[in-house]
């Protein structure tokens, strides 16, 4: 946007409308290109005519011009309908000219000061306009509710302010491309708008767009706003990376070897990360790398291997890599700091206004965003003058950190310490205990591990020491580090960390994700806790409690299979190596799970060796149930080697032992394996029948992942046999189950099977919609094993060069994965076409 979407507008204008105000932002689309095409003289003439036409339209409807810069306007109206009429008349006046203007309308109640408007509504209006296209008028839900005209609904979109999705509407006629929103990234939602930092944002964007800058590191002290600036810069360039912008938070990691697996997990990559990155133009945003500096060479290797990869990182210090370009994030300037502080302050004290006291508070806090936010939270109890008085007394005494630490960091620590000292003794106890959580926590886990009551958590959240987001609670990392110091000083670390690990073990066991567990698997209980699990496993290694760590890792067996077998393999290897005397039963389970992960990453012979070792342990224990699990795994390995006779013998023994032990969860894989052997031997009907029986039995036993994978596999086999009705029924079964547990690869594979079945049976619109959705999801990042099958499906779906299919495919590309799944499952495929 040409006009600054800052907190305060300093045009010096008075008489701005107050109360309920409708903001209109305008911006010329492609101004740089137009200047090049028209030449300076013709462009200047066109720009002047554009300004004259728009100003005339605004004046006719009572618009007050707040700010104008370059080719952009910011105008305020007291009446939403008049604002809409002004926008439409302005577009009509420009219709025959060479300039195409995008416009955005939003209604709110901003604070009016001597310096201009203050409030998030200004930013919302600017972001709405930025999402549109030349000739388009976008309207927010708040503005739409106040106008009488019929508007075209465009659905909910995440804007580049990184807030939750909000509905947008289009005024006037015309068809336009999809909006420039954030629906094609995994950037995190932000609870508050991006305020200030226009100069810094512009400089970071300029560096990101330079071909010679492959690695950009934002440096600065904790709490200086590095992360927020990085997220906003990434949001602004989403459209420039065809393979996506990927957010990878690293604050919970302490082991540099986990950086690559964490990146791979964020990308959905299976196998070698470098292979998945090859040939893809994407941006990785790696947040909080300072504790992983030793992993820098691995990052350099990724850049060297992936020519089109670009990386944006945040760290308190440089990574010291040859390809690195550093950008030191400065504190706010005074105007930005005051606007930021007032925006936060108004949330707790609506009458907060600019003045000398606010400016002095900002100066005393060195204009650091986190310090300002913590101070603003104190206004629930203190008047600004009282707040300033406390700062006057405390800050000079609390700057005694390490002499070699940056001044800003020492000041920030003092601010956090000051906030901590205002807590009641019971609140301080809970505060330091909560630091054990590396990935946030729920109310239940806070109560169990830190003895945190609801009232205390609410108090800590109100004082900005605890954050609430998506139903979970967390701390800013800077605050958490301070709290960890307090936990160590209090001598409570060992006991709290033990309770933390034991709670996670209990949670994992309740989720039914161990291999032996009967009952429905609850992946949703574990997925949000992965950073906590990592922290607990690391602590068990460091504190000689590897047996507890192995029990936790084993309890998560099915989660590791679906989520990240590469990482799980490393945990099992480290835990087994460091473990002293452990029970034979636990060793048998751990060896089996290590074998699973090793097999899944493609090291088949090594995995089979571990299976054999584990099988020996289970046989020596007389555990027929455990032995049955290993036998069907070894049968799979025999199928891979083409030894079908051995595979059948092992699978039949597995089935016999499963029946004797009464385990349906173990019998289901054995039956499925026997079906795969029949298919390999050419007995298709019996093979499919056995696989379907195995899928149903897995579902009855609660083994969701096996059920989903088997049904999708059945759909794939039916496609190969050209049994399209069966393929659709089975793929839908697998899709529904994979969607329930959030398994991305199986969902995409199922959509491809359904698209192929639709194309082969002449339903080209459905085929195009689903295949377009597959392509969009592929663009989000590597999918893994699916990619080896892709060409066959693409050839089959796209064989018909048909306009109906092409149009539907384009529409399908606008669908999210969730939307595509809902569309696919909306049609109930009960028809069985057979062979």
Task: Specify the structural class.
Answer: alpha/beta
Count of DSSP-assigned helices: 37
Radius of gyration over C-alpha positions, nearest whole angstrom: 30 Å
**β content, as a range?**
5-15%
Number of strands: 16
Please state the overall shape, judged from the principal axes of the Cα atoms: globular
The whole-number mean of residue pLDDT values reads 85
Report, as a whole number of angstroms, the end-to-end distance: 58 Å
Q: Helix share of residues?
A: 55-70%
Unreliable spans? 1-13, 393-410, 830-835
Main β-sheet description: 7 strands, mixed
Q: Strand order, biggest sheet? A: 2-3-1-4-7-9-8
Structural account:
This protein has 835 residues and is of the alpha/beta class. Helices cover 57% and strands 10% of the residues. It contains 37 helices and 16 strands. The strands form 4 sheets. A 7-stranded mixed β-sheet has the order 2-3-1-4-7-9-8, sandwiched between helices. It has a 5-stranded parallel β-sheet with strand order 11-12-13-10-14, sandwiched between helices. A two-stranded antiparallel sheet has the order 5-6. Strand 2 and strand 3 (72-77) form a beta hairpin. Helix 12 (369-377) packs parallel to helix 14. The longest helix is centred in the first third of the chain and has 30 residues, at 31-60. Mean pLDDT is 85; it is low at 1-13, 393-410 and 830-835.
């Amino acid at each position: 946007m040409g006009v600054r979407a800052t907190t305060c507008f300093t045009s010096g204008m008075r008489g701005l409308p107050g109360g309920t105000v409708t903001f209109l932002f305008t911006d010329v689309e492609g101004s740089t290109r137009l200047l090049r095409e028209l030449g300076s003289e013709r462009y200047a003439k066109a720009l002047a005519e554009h300004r004259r036409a728009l100003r005339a339209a605004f004046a006719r409807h009572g618009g007050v011009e707040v700010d104008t810069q370059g080719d952009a306007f910011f105008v305020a109206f007291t009446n939403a309908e008049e604002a809409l009429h002004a926008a439409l008349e302005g577009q009509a006046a420009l219709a025959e000219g060479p300039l195409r203007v995008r416009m955005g309308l939003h209604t709110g109640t901003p604070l009016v000061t001597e310096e201009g408007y203050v409030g998030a509504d200004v930013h919302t209006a600017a972001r709405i306009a930025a999402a549109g296209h030349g000739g388009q008028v976008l309207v927010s839900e708040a503005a739409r509710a106040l106008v009488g005209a019929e508007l075209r609904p465009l659905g909910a979109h995440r804007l580049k302010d990184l807030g939750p999705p909000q509905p947008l509407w289009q005024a006037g006629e015309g068809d336009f491309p999809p909006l420039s929103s954030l629906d094609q990234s995994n950037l995190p939602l932000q609870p508050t708008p991006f305020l200030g930092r226009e100069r810094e944002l512009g400089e970071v964007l300029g560096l990101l767009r330079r071909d010679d800058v492959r690695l950009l590191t934002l440096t600065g002290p904790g709490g200086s706003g590095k992360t927020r600036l990085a997220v906003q810069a990434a949001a602004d360039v989403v459209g420039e990376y065809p393979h996506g912008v990927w957010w990878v938070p690293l604050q919970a990691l302490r082991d540099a070897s986990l950086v690559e697996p964490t990146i791979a997990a964020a990308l959905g990559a299976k196998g070698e990360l470098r292979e998945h990155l090859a040939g893809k133009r994407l941006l990785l945003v790696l947040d909080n790398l300072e504790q992983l500096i030793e992993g820098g060479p691995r990052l350099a290797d990724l850049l060297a291997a992936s020519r089109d990869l670009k990386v944006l990182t945040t760290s308190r210090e440089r990574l010291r890599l040859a390809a690195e370009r550093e950008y030191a994030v400065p504190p706010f300037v005074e105007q930005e700091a005051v606007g930021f502080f007032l925006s936060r302050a108004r949330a707790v004290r609506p009458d907060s206004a600019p003045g000398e006291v606010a400016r002095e508070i900002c100066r005393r806090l060195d204009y650091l965003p986190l310090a300002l936010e913590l101070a603003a939270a104190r206004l629930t109890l203190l008047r600004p003058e009282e707040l300033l008085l406390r700062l006057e007394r405390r800050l000079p005494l609390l700057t005694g950190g390490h002499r070699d630490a940056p001044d800003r960091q020492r000041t920030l620590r003092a601010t956090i310490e000051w906030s901590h000292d205002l807590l009641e003794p019971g609140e301080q106890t809970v505060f330091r205990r909560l630091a054990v959580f590396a990935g946030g926590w729920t109310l239940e886990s806070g109560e169990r591990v830190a003895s945190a009551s609801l009232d205390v958590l609410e108090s800590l959240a109100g004082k900005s020491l605890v954050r609430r987001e998506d139903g979970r609670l967390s701390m800013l990392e800077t605050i958490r580090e301070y709290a960890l110091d307090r936990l160590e000083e209090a001598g409570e670390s060992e006991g709290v960390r033990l309770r933390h690990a034991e709670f996670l073990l209990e949670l994992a066991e309740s989720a039914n994700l161990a291999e032996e567990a009967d009952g429905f698997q609850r992946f949703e209980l574990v997925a949000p806790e992965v950073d906590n699990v990592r922290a607990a496993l690391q602590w068990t290694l460091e504190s000689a409690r590897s047996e507890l760590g192995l029990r936790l890792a084993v309890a998560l067996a099915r989660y590791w299979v679906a989520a990240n077998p590469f990482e799980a393999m490393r945990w099992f290897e480290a835990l087994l190596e460091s473990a002293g005397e452990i029970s034979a039963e636990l060793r048998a389970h751990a060896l089996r799970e290590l074998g699973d992960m090793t097999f899944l990453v493609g090291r088949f012979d090594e995995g089979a060796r571990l299976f054999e070792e584990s099988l020996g342990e289970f046989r020596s224990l007389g555990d027929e149930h455990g032995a049955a699990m290993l036998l069907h795994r070894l049968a799979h390995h025999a199928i891979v080697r083409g030894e079908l006779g051995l595979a059948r013998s092992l699978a039949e023994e597995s089935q016999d032992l499963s029946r004797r032990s009464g385990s349906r969860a173990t019998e289901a894989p054995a039956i499925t394996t026997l079906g795969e052997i029949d298919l390999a031997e050419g007995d298709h009907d019996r093979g499919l029948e056995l696989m379907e029986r195995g899928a149903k039995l897995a579902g009855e036993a609660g083994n969701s992942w096996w059920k989903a994978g088997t049904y999708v596999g059945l759909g794939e086999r039916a496609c190969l046999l050209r049994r399209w009705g069966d393929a659709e029924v089975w793929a839908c079964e697998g899709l529904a189950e994979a969607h329930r547990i959030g398994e991305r690869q199986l969902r995409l594979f199922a959509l491809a099977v359904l698209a192929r079945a639709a194309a082969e049976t002449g339903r080209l619109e459905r085929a195009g919609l689903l295949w377009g959705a597959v392509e969009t999801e592929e663009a989000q990042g590597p999918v893994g094993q699916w990619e080896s099958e892709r060409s066959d499906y693409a050839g089959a779906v796209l064989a018909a060069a048909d306009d109906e299919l092409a149009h539907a495919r384009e529409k399908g590309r606008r669908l999210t994965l969730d939307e595509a799944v809902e569309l696919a499952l909306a049609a109930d495929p009960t028809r069985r076409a057979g062979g």
